[in-house]
Amino acid sequence: MKKTLDDYLNGEVLLIDKPLNWTSFQAVNKLRWEIRQAFNIKKIKVGHAGTLDPLATGLLVICTGKMTKQIDTFQGQIKEYTGTIVLGGTTPSFDLETEINETFPKDHITSELIHGTTKQFIGHIEQYPPVFSAIKKDGKRLYEFARAGVSVDIKPRTIHIAEFEITNISDHNLEFRVVCSKGTYIRSLANDFGKALNSGAHLSELRRTKIGDFNVDDALSPEQFIEQLKG
């Protein structure tokens, strides 16, 4: 059933499947603009419950109107991700935003070692966020320092990983599934996993599949949402 302006003002929770190379900010801006155009209004509150990197796809929970007050609640919920870790090389950003800067031996890595090493990352662990991240330090984003070549002291965070499994091994590409707490950087997990294997690793693909009870299987692409909005 087509939503009314009152529906959006009183508060909707929109499940959006974020496309590759879109920022979360772009997705929110696009939906806000489309809602304003559809109902010929000047403004409406729209926000998302948890950023996804541009190189990640998957579930964005976007709230409108009065439901924006629930964003903090949704952000705090358990999240599930799937993706691919590539062994043998690291990048400064821990993913494909930057190029490989160092290579490592990987011939010693066996399937048994890979599966066994995942156990080191279950439970409460200390994790250093990537230098290429939006975390603020001294009023600036960490990625601003990183892109300027300025090194900064980053403090570790305590996060919780409930599940971490390798679902497929193809050469040195590891497909995985992770269930984790708010504040977990999967890029950092990939980097740390490489170190634990006495090699290097980076994230080549990432998809968020769940936030709490919300599932990406129920999400719409931005195009599908716009089509539904216009009826």
Description:
There is one protein chain. By secondary structure, the chain is an alpha+beta fold. It has seven helices and 13 strands. The strands form three sheets. Strands 1, 2, 3, 4, 7, 10, 11, 12 and 13 form a nine-stranded mixed β-sheet that branches. Strand 10 (about 155-170) and strand 11 (about 175-180) form a beta hairpin. The longest helix has 16 residues, at about 25-40.
Radius of gyration of CA atoms, rounded to a whole number:
19 Å
Sheet of most strands: 9 strands, mixed
Spans of at least 5 consecutive residues with low confidence: none
Report the helical percentage.
Answer: 25-40%
Between the first and last Cα atoms, what is the distance in angstroms? 9 Å
Structure annotation, total helices: 7
Order of helices and strands: HEHEEHEEEHEEEHEEHEEH
- Strand runs, count: 13
Please state the average pLDDT score. Answer: 93
Tertiary shape: elongated
**What percentage of amino acids are in beta strands?**
25-35%
Structural class: alpha+beta
